[in-house]
Design goal:
CATH topology: Farnesyl Diphosphate Synthase
CATH class: Mainly Alpha
Structural class: mainly alpha
Order of helices and strands: HHHHHHHHHHHHHH
Helix content: over 70%
Number of domains: 1
CATH superfamily: Farnesyl Diphosphate Synthase
CATH architecture: Orthogonal Bundle
Number of strands: 0
Strand content: under 5%
Shape: globular
Radius of gyration: 21 Å
Length: 333
């Protein structure tokens, strides 16, 4: 029995996801041309770098052997994250970028439609029993609230009060909530038992934590360092602060304050975040969440043509992209 990789499956279903989104936009009717055009422009502008829209079809396929019925959920997932990522960029002080000459006010309205109205329309359009539709709607609405709560906690995070646990709680809403939503929705659509739906929701939460840590690493590895510029309290920063001696901790907090407007401060702070002991702590914790995600998948089981792709996604999200900063290495005696 041959298994399918997540990248192969993404390539196969991408046209179907695009068609599902086009159908959702068409259902807005002829009087919504401006809305339709704005959402299409936002989708072109806010391209997703990684093929995470495969997640709901993989969950559905693991339960039933059939990925196709969950394509509408993949479209919903893509629309939600398009909206969330744009609004996150806007909150971080980015203006939407020149690529599509995206007007900020237009894009905000498009984000509201993309992240809220269109997903609900997609749920309503599914040919499923009413209890299933109600459960899908409730899962979506609960996740929207949880995601907003996590995002607010992230925006209000203070480095001076940050701990690894406090950052994880913010991540659990900001990223864990949306991924738990889509894995649970896929399980609901597949007709899974309440116990299995809860396990898939747990898997989504853990996967979301891993993906946020992966995203944090990409920000540093790419050289963008947007988190340091925006004063975002990341898990890696919490690792550095928790294990630092009092004087070193005070220095890190000073750097956090000045890194918003100082290239030298950002460079020094990046070096401290890449110190071997900090990365070691970070790597260990990522490994713990990776193992937990694999444990849940092992408990769930399912169609072995599709489970390997879910394991691949876990391993992708658990990669360590960062290397120790040579400036932080102690000299050999």
């Amino acid at each position: 029995m041959d298994s399918v990789s997540y990248s192969e499956l993404h390539q196969q279903i991408s046209p179907d996801i695009d068609a599902e989104i086009a159908a959702a936009l068409d259902r807005l009717g002829p009087s919504a041309d401006a809305v339709r055009n704005a959402v299409q422009k936002l989708l072109r502008h806010q391209q997703m770098k990684h093929p995470l829209s495969v997640l709901p079809v993989l969950v559905h396929a693991a339960e039933t052997g059939a990925p196709g019925p969950a394509v509408p959920l993949s479209a919903l997932h893509l629309l939600w994250w398009t909206s969330a990522c744009y609004l996150d960029d806007l909150a971080d002080g980015q203006d939407g970028g020149p690529a599509e000459r995206l007007d900020v006010n237009e894009a905000v309205l498009a984000s509201v439609i993309s992240g809220n109205t269109l997903p609900v329309r997609i749920i309503q359009s599914q040919d499923v029993p009413e209890p299933v539709r109600s459960a899908l709607t409730a899962e979506f609405l609960d996740a929207c609230i949880m995601g907003a709560e996590g995002q607010l906690a992230d925006m209000r995070g203070e480095a001076g009060r940050a701990t690894r646990n406090s950052v994880i709680e913010a991540y659990r809403g900001k990223s864990g909530g949306p991924f738990a939503m889509i894995t649970a929705m896929a399980a609901i659509l597949a007709g899974a038992t309440a116990e299995r739906i809860a396990l898939w929701r747990d898997f989504g939460h853990v996967f979301g934590l891993l993906w946020q840590m992966f995203n944090d690493q990409e920000d540093i590895a790419s050289g963008r360092n947007e988190d340091l510029t925006n004063g975002t309290v990341t898990y890696l920063l919490a690792c550095a602060l928790e294990d630092a001696a009092p004087e070193a901790r005070a220095h890190i907090l000073d750097l956090c304050a000045t890194a918003r407007s100082s290239d030298p401060a950002r460079s020094e702070l990046t070096g401290l975040l890449l110190a071997p002991p900090v990365l070691h702590r970070f790597r260990e914790d990522v490994g713990t969440y990776r193992d937990e995600a694999h444990r849940i998948l092992g408990e769930l089981g399912g169609d072995e043509r599709y489970l390997p792709a879910l394991r691949q996604l876990v391993d992708l999200s658990a990669q360590i992209l960062l290397q120790p900063d040579p400036r932080m290495l102690l000299p050999t005696p």
